[in-house]
Prior knowledge:
Elements: H1 2-22, E1 25-27, E2 30-34, E3 41-44, E4 67-71, E5 93-95, E6 101-102, H2 108-117, H3 119-123, E7 127-129, H4 157-196, H5 200-214
Parallel strand pairs: 3-4, 4-5, 6-7
Antiparallel strand pairs: 1-2, 2-3
Amino acid sequence: MNKVKISSNAGILVMLLLLSTAQPKPCPPCLCEQQEDLRGWILNCSSMGLKEMPPLSSELCHSCHTINILHLQNNSLTTVPLGALDNLIYLKEVDFSNNPWHCDCSILYFKQWLEDFSNASLANLQCASPASVKSRALSQLTGNELEGCRKPQPIKCLDFFWRDFALIFVAIIVLILARCILQYSKKLTSQAARKLHPFEVPLLQIHDLEKQKSK
Protein backbone atom coordinates (compact mmCIF):
# COMPACT_ATOMS: atom_id res chain seq x y z
CA MET A 1 0.00 0.00 0.00
CA ASN A 2 2.80 2.41 0.88
CA LYS A 3 4.47 1.75 -2.45
CA VAL A 4 1.22 2.47 -4.28
CA LYS A 5 0.79 5.77 -2.39
CA ILE A 6 4.39 6.77 -3.09
CA SER A 7 4.07 6.01 -6.81
CA SER A 8 0.77 7.88 -7.05
CA ASN A 9 2.23 10.85 -5.21
CA ALA A 10 5.23 10.82 -7.50
CA GLY A 11 2.92 10.76 -10.51
CA ILE A 12 0.98 13.73 -9.17
CA LEU A 13 4.19 15.66 -8.56
CA VAL A 14 5.36 14.94 -12.10
CA MET A 15 2.01 16.12 -13.49
CA LEU A 16 2.15 19.29 -11.40
CA LEU A 17 5.70 19.92 -12.55
CA LEU A 18 4.71 19.50 -16.17
CA LEU A 19 1.72 21.80 -15.74
CA SER A 20 3.83 24.42 -14.03
CA THR A 21 6.45 24.37 -16.77
CA ALA A 22 3.74 24.62 -19.45
CA GLN A 23 2.26 27.76 -17.92
CA PRO A 24 3.34 31.08 -19.47
CA LYS A 25 6.10 32.76 -17.50
CA PRO A 26 6.56 36.51 -17.37
CA CYS A 27 9.56 37.74 -19.33
CA PRO A 28 8.86 41.47 -19.10
CA PRO A 29 7.45 42.92 -21.21
CA CYS A 30 6.77 39.61 -22.98
CA LEU A 31 5.57 36.14 -22.03
CA CYS A 32 7.55 32.91 -22.31
CA GLU A 33 5.56 29.77 -22.94
CA GLN A 34 7.04 26.32 -23.26
CA GLN A 35 6.22 24.35 -26.38
CA GLU A 36 4.15 21.20 -26.19
CA ASP A 37 7.15 18.97 -26.83
CA LEU A 38 9.02 20.76 -23.99
CA ARG A 39 12.01 21.23 -26.28
CA GLY A 40 11.89 24.99 -26.56
CA TRP A 41 10.08 28.18 -25.70
CA ILE A 42 7.75 30.60 -27.42
CA LEU A 43 8.55 34.24 -26.70
CA ASN A 44 5.30 36.14 -27.22
CA CYS A 45 5.73 39.92 -27.45
CA SER A 46 2.84 40.55 -29.85
CA SER A 47 0.24 43.33 -29.50
CA MET A 48 2.00 45.01 -26.57
CA GLY A 49 2.50 48.45 -28.08
CA LEU A 50 6.28 48.04 -28.15
CA LYS A 51 8.17 50.90 -29.77
CA GLU A 52 11.58 49.31 -29.29
CA MET A 53 12.90 45.77 -29.44
CA PRO A 54 12.88 44.08 -26.02
CA PRO A 55 16.32 42.98 -24.80
CA LEU A 56 16.42 39.35 -25.90
CA SER A 57 18.97 38.18 -23.33
CA SER A 58 19.19 36.05 -20.23
CA GLU A 59 18.21 39.08 -18.15
CA LEU A 60 14.83 39.11 -19.88
CA CYS A 61 14.07 35.39 -19.70
CA HIS A 62 16.31 32.67 -18.33
CA SER A 63 15.41 30.40 -21.26
CA CYS A 64 15.87 32.91 -24.09
CA HIS A 65 18.78 30.94 -25.47
CA THR A 66 16.33 28.12 -26.28
CA ILE A 67 13.65 30.30 -27.89
CA ASN A 68 12.25 28.55 -30.95
CA ILE A 69 9.39 30.91 -31.82
CA LEU A 70 9.43 34.71 -31.57
CA HIS A 71 6.24 36.79 -31.94
CA LEU A 72 6.66 40.55 -32.29
CA GLN A 73 3.76 41.34 -34.62
CA ASN A 74 1.20 44.13 -34.11
CA ASN A 75 3.52 46.53 -32.31
CA SER A 76 5.02 49.94 -33.10
CA LEU A 77 8.53 48.81 -33.94
CA THR A 78 10.41 50.91 -36.48
CA THR A 79 13.79 49.18 -36.53
CA VAL A 80 15.87 46.39 -34.97
CA PRO A 81 19.19 47.30 -33.32
CA LEU A 82 22.39 45.86 -34.70
CA GLY A 83 23.05 42.39 -33.27
CA ALA A 84 19.72 42.16 -31.40
CA LEU A 85 18.87 38.76 -32.93
CA ASP A 86 22.30 37.18 -33.09
CA ASN A 87 22.01 35.22 -29.82
CA LEU A 88 18.81 33.40 -30.82
CA ILE A 89 20.61 30.43 -32.33
CA TYR A 90 17.72 27.97 -31.83
CA LEU A 91 15.12 30.19 -33.48
CA LYS A 92 12.87 28.43 -36.02
CA GLU A 93 9.97 30.83 -36.55
CA VAL A 94 9.49 34.61 -36.33
CA ASP A 95 6.67 37.05 -36.96
CA PHE A 96 7.47 40.78 -37.30
CA SER A 97 4.40 41.74 -39.35
CA ASN A 98 2.20 44.80 -38.81
CA ASN A 99 4.90 47.15 -37.55
CA PRO A 100 5.59 50.64 -38.96
CA TRP A 101 9.13 49.96 -40.18
CA HIS A 102 11.37 52.95 -40.91
CA CYS A 103 13.36 51.80 -43.91
CA ASP A 104 16.60 53.74 -43.74
CA CYS A 105 20.15 52.46 -43.44
CA SER A 106 19.65 51.44 -39.80
CA ILE A 107 17.29 48.63 -40.88
CA LEU A 108 19.86 47.02 -43.18
CA TYR A 109 21.03 44.61 -40.44
CA PHE A 110 17.44 43.42 -39.86
CA LYS A 111 16.82 42.99 -43.60
CA GLN A 112 19.98 40.95 -44.12
CA TRP A 113 19.26 38.84 -41.02
CA LEU A 114 15.79 37.96 -42.34
CA GLU A 115 17.20 37.17 -45.79
CA ASP A 116 19.43 34.57 -44.16
CA PHE A 117 16.73 33.31 -41.81
CA SER A 118 13.46 33.29 -43.78
CA ASN A 119 12.52 35.06 -47.00
CA ALA A 120 8.86 34.35 -46.24
CA SER A 121 9.05 36.37 -43.01
CA LEU A 122 10.78 39.22 -44.86
CA ALA A 123 8.11 39.24 -47.59
CA ASN A 124 5.45 40.24 -45.02
CA LEU A 125 7.18 43.48 -44.02
CA GLN A 126 6.29 46.88 -45.49
CA CYS A 127 7.92 50.25 -45.01
CA ALA A 128 5.94 53.01 -43.29
CA SER A 129 8.63 55.68 -43.72
CA PRO A 130 10.44 57.63 -45.12
CA ALA A 131 8.08 58.96 -47.78
CA SER A 132 10.32 57.86 -50.67
CA VAL A 133 9.76 54.15 -49.87
CA LYS A 134 6.41 54.25 -48.06
CA SER A 135 4.22 51.15 -48.64
CA ARG A 136 7.03 49.36 -50.45
CA ALA A 137 8.06 45.85 -49.43
CA LEU A 138 11.31 45.80 -47.48
CA SER A 139 12.40 42.73 -49.45
CA GLN A 140 12.35 44.73 -52.72
CA LEU A 141 14.66 47.50 -51.52
CA THR A 142 18.36 47.50 -52.26
CA GLY A 143 21.02 49.03 -50.07
CA ASN A 144 21.26 52.11 -52.30
CA GLU A 145 17.53 52.74 -51.89
CA LEU A 146 17.75 52.84 -48.10
CA GLU A 147 18.21 56.42 -46.99
CA GLY A 148 21.69 57.08 -45.65
CA CYS A 149 23.24 53.91 -47.11
CA ARG A 150 24.64 55.45 -50.26
CA LYS A 151 28.40 55.75 -49.90
CA PRO A 152 30.12 58.51 -51.90
CA GLN A 153 32.73 57.25 -54.31
CA PRO A 154 36.30 58.08 -53.27
CA ILE A 155 37.73 61.05 -55.14
CA LYS A 156 40.92 60.27 -57.04
CA CYS A 157 43.20 63.09 -58.18
CA LEU A 158 44.33 61.06 -61.17
CA ASP A 159 40.73 60.85 -62.41
CA PHE A 160 40.47 64.65 -62.29
CA PHE A 161 43.78 64.99 -64.18
CA TRP A 162 42.72 62.77 -67.05
CA ARG A 163 39.29 64.40 -67.20
CA ASP A 164 40.79 67.91 -67.38
CA PHE A 165 43.41 66.77 -69.88
CA ALA A 166 40.69 65.37 -72.14
CA LEU A 167 38.68 68.60 -71.92
CA ILE A 168 41.74 70.74 -72.76
CA PHE A 169 42.63 68.47 -75.69
CA VAL A 170 39.11 68.70 -77.09
CA ALA A 171 39.12 72.50 -76.66
CA ILE A 172 42.43 72.78 -78.60
CA ILE A 173 41.09 70.61 -81.43
CA VAL A 174 37.94 72.76 -81.62
CA LEU A 175 40.02 75.97 -81.81
CA ILE A 176 42.23 74.56 -84.58
CA LEU A 177 39.20 73.45 -86.57
CA ALA A 178 37.54 76.83 -86.08
CA ARG A 179 40.67 78.66 -87.37
CA CYS A 180 40.92 76.36 -90.39
CA ILE A 181 37.25 76.90 -91.18
CA LEU A 182 37.67 80.68 -90.85
CA GLN A 183 40.68 80.75 -93.17
CA TYR A 184 38.93 78.55 -95.69
CA SER A 185 35.84 80.76 -95.63
CA LYS A 186 38.00 83.86 -96.27
CA LYS A 187 39.62 82.11 -99.21
CA LEU A 188 36.24 81.17 -100.64
CA THR A 189 35.02 84.73 -100.19
CA SER A 190 38.07 86.09 -101.99
CA GLN A 191 37.66 83.69 -104.88
CA ALA A 192 33.99 84.52 -105.20
CA ALA A 193 34.80 88.24 -105.29
CA ARG A 194 37.30 87.72 -108.11
CA LYS A 195 34.79 85.78 -110.14
CA LEU A 196 32.13 88.47 -109.75
CA HIS A 197 34.52 91.43 -110.53
CA PRO A 198 37.44 90.02 -112.56
CA PHE A 199 38.68 93.47 -113.78
CA GLU A 200 38.52 95.44 -110.56
CA VAL A 201 41.66 94.03 -109.04
CA PRO A 202 44.01 94.72 -112.03
CA LEU A 203 42.61 98.27 -112.43
CA LEU A 204 43.25 99.01 -108.79
CA GLN A 205 46.79 97.73 -109.12
CA ILE A 206 47.41 99.96 -112.19
CA HIS A 207 45.97 102.96 -110.38
CA ASP A 208 48.29 102.36 -107.43
CA LEU A 209 51.32 102.13 -109.73
CA GLU A 210 50.44 105.46 -111.45
CA LYS A 211 50.21 107.16 -108.05
CA GLN A 212 53.63 105.88 -107.10
CA LYS A 213 55.15 107.16 -110.39
CA SER A 214 53.63 110.61 -110.00
CA LYS A 215 55.21 110.91 -106.57
